[in-house]
Design a protein that fits this description.
This protein has 528 residues and is an alpha/beta fold. Among the domains are: 17-31 and 46-173, Rossmann fold (3-Layer(aba) Sandwich); 425-527, ANL, C-terminal domain (GMP Synthetase, Chain A, domain 3). The chain is built from 14 helices and 28 strands. An eight-stranded mixed beta sheet has the order 8-7-6-4-5-9-10-21. A seven-stranded mixed beta sheet has the order 3-2-12-11-13-14-15, sandwiched between helices. A five-stranded antiparallel beta sheet has the order 1-19-20-22-23. Strand 13, helix 9 and strand 14 (291-294) form a beta-alpha-beta unit. Helix 1 crosses helix 3 (83-90), helix 4 (103-114) packs across helix 5 and helix 6 (197-209) packs across helix 7. The longest helix is centred in the N-terminal third of the chain and has 15 residues, at 47-61. The radius of gyration is 23 Å and the shape is globular. It starts with a strand and ends with a helix.
């Protein structure tokens, strides 16, 4: 029977104030606790130090930066790059972040979109930012992390000041925009997703209500991603530690887990292979490691089993989330241990304070169990909107649910499955083909590291399923072998009639999402 799924309703645990007031007040509770760890340089910083430096920066900027002004940062993860984020919150400014890998064209577009008053940038990215500003009307102040003879240095702005003792955060409306995240831009230019102080704290609170402890989390994402920002802010709820690293070397990760007693590792599914391929796993004490938090694309049941067999005390938690609304679903190890083991392809139960329904793409009716349709979701963490794009009504249905653009279904146990993007589906003859389903099958082949399936136009048949594959280092497989492997595991219409091509690297956005239109374009070029 068709129905709407609802997450648990729980008492509030965070005061819904501004992010500046929240962080400013909470930091004092955890003064000597380690707030952040740079695993690359093996340096740590306490909550009291983070607060002191962010207050000093706010004091230095308060005559330049007003409530509602936009700051942009473009930097790798360091102990410094969180400080402008917090200082901006204190001053009521709006925070946004770039990634150097976006390049000049995308960076120019995004900076022109949000018109920053100040840009914080690390030394290696200064030239890119300068070039991106050329040809625009923007005249932001540039502040450099590191050395510079041309611009103000970040280090000069965090020096002691007589005003820091009396400084207090600016009061703004909790529903004002506090932070903007740029969408991945897999089709067209990215959009700026706006979250208010309220919606950001709601996302943090929903995460906290999931009720599993994360005293120390290792992550690899920059503040360009909402996950890194939420992880930073969440630390101020419970005094937990955020560890960041650039290295994906197995020994470096294992040493970091051992030395800093990491309890959770957050990353893409590909990160699980670092552990299953590690040669020296037994040399490290990683007994503190309890949770592997996975988001983004799915991964094969075989890899789930390999990881679980190797690390039986580590729970793999596959979460479904979106920049526009935060966490949507995941399993809670406290309540769903057996479901987690029996349903490795599921992204869990609906998150607390969240409602979800599956809607027919044809009739717009609400569907029941095991019926595939578009996922619509509603929670207090729903974005304010897209920056400078007017009304968000086209993104919402008549009941105020966000139309995610994701296809999925829930089973008889109300466990959710995401099967692909609505816009990524294509038709072979009259049949809808879901690329992510086929990609999961291809990933089960022992030689395959990554796979993308797209539709290639063919006369009289619509689009035929065609795969682009990256093989694991040291492995060999032919296109015929993979075609046969898939044919034995899918329906007649899902066979790889367009064949298999191999590449060493797939085109991706800075957030790690495959740019499918580029894959399709490359395939068509190869077939000409």
């Amino acid at each position: 029977m068709a129905h709407i799924l609802h997450g648990r309703k729980l008492n509030s645990i965070i005061e819904m104030t501004t992010l500046g007031e929240f962080i400013f007040n909470q930091a004092d509770k955890f003064g000597s606790n380690i707030c952040q760890v740079d695993a690359n340089l093996r340096k740590t910083e306490s909550y009291s130090s983070v607060k002191q430096r962010s207050v000093r920066l706010a004091v230095s900027l308060q005559k330049k930066l007003s409530a509602g002004d936009v700051t942009v940062s473009c930097s790798k993860n360091t102990l410094d790059n969180a400080i402008p984020v917090l200082a901006s919150f204190y001053l009521g400014a709006v925070v946004s972040n770039l990634d150097a890998s976006l390049g000049v064209k995308n960076s120019r577009y995004l900076m022109s979109l949000v018109s920053p008053k100040i840009i914080f940038v690390d030394e290696p990215s200064v030239a890119m930012i300068e070039e991106a500003l050329q040809g625009t009307d923007l005249e932001p102040e540039i502040v450099v992390f590191g050395r510079s003879d041309k611009y103000r240095k970040f280090s000069d702005l965090v020096q002691p000041s007589p005003e820091e003792a009396s400084f207090r955060p600016v009061t703004v409306d909790v529903h004002d925009t506090a932070v903007m995240f740029f969408s991945s831009g897999t089709s067209g230019f990215p959009k700026a997703v706006c979250h208010s102080h309220y919606t950001t704290l709601q996302i943090v609170e929903i995460g906290k209500k999931i009720e599993f402890e994360e005293p120390c989390t290792l992550n690899f994402s920059k503040f360009y991603w909402i996950s890194a920002m939420i992880l930073l802010i969440r630390g101020f709820v419970d005094g937990s530690t955020r560890v960041f690293s650039e290295s994906l070397d197995a020994d470096a990760i294992l040493r970091t887990i051992q030395d800093y007693k990491v309890s959770s590792v957050f990353g893409a599914p590909s990160l699980t292979y670092v552990f299953t391929h590690a040669e020296n796993l037994q040399q490290y004490d990683i007994s503190s490691f309890r949770y592997m938090l996975i988001t983004g694309t799915g991964f094969s049941a075989e890899q789930y089993k390999r990881f679980s067999d190797l690390l039986p005390n580590v729970d793999i938690i596959f979460a479904y989330a979106m920049t526009e609304i935060g966490q949507i679903s995941l399993f809670n190890p406290k309540y769903h241990k057996e479901l987690m083991k029996s349903k490795p392809k599921s992204c869990g139960k609906v998150a607390p304070e969240t409602s979800l329904k599956i809607v027919s793409t044809d009739t717009r009716e609400i569907l029941g169990p095991n019926q595939k349709g578009e996922i619509h979701v509603k929670s207090p963490g729903l974005m304010v909107g897209y920056y400078n794009l007017g009304s968000t009504s086209q993104c919402l249905d008549n009941d105020g649910f966000l139309k995610t653009g994701d296809m999925g279904y829930y089973d008889d146990d109300n466990c959710l499955y995401v099967v692909g993007r609505l816009k990524e589906m294509f038709k072979y003859k009259s049949w809808h083909i879901v690329p992510s389903f086929m990609e999961d099958v291809i990933l089960e082949h022992p030689a395959v590291k990554e796979a993308v399936v797209v539709g290639v136009p063919q006369e009289d048949e619509g689009e035929v399923p065609t795969a682009c594959v990256v093989l694991k280092d040291g492995y060999v497989a032919s296109s015929q072998e993979i075609e046969m492997f898939v044919a034995e595991r899918v329906s007649e219409r899902e066979k790889l009639r367009g064949g298999v091509t191999f590449t060493t690297e797939l085109p991706k956005t800075p957030t790690g999402k495959v740019i499918r239109r580029e894959v399709q374009k490359n395939l068509l070029r190869c077939l000409e």
